[in-house]
Amino acid sequence: MVRIRLRRVGRKKAPQYRIVVADSKSPRDGKFIEIIGTYAPRLAEGAVTINSERANHWLDVGAQPSDTVRSLLRKAGVLKARHEARLAAKLKAAAVPLAEKPAEG
Question: What is the CATH number of domain 2-93?
């Protein structure tokens, strides 16, 4: 199974993480498939940067985010935009077109 999870980088007492797509059996800092973002917990602003296009691609093909990554995706607005897009597509498919009114005259 493919997971979206954190990979620790940075020095001791100054953690930084890369948000990576990896096989669930590979170790935390081991082999990965793709880097889709970064997370710096010690920064106030700009702590999370995510390539939402690639994150959506991996979510579409069935990658499961870890709990922490899911909360980071929520903070970055990726999950909200994904939900709204899916809801809009569902509503558009269910919408019935209005009949044209005949011109009065």
Answer: 3.30.1320.10
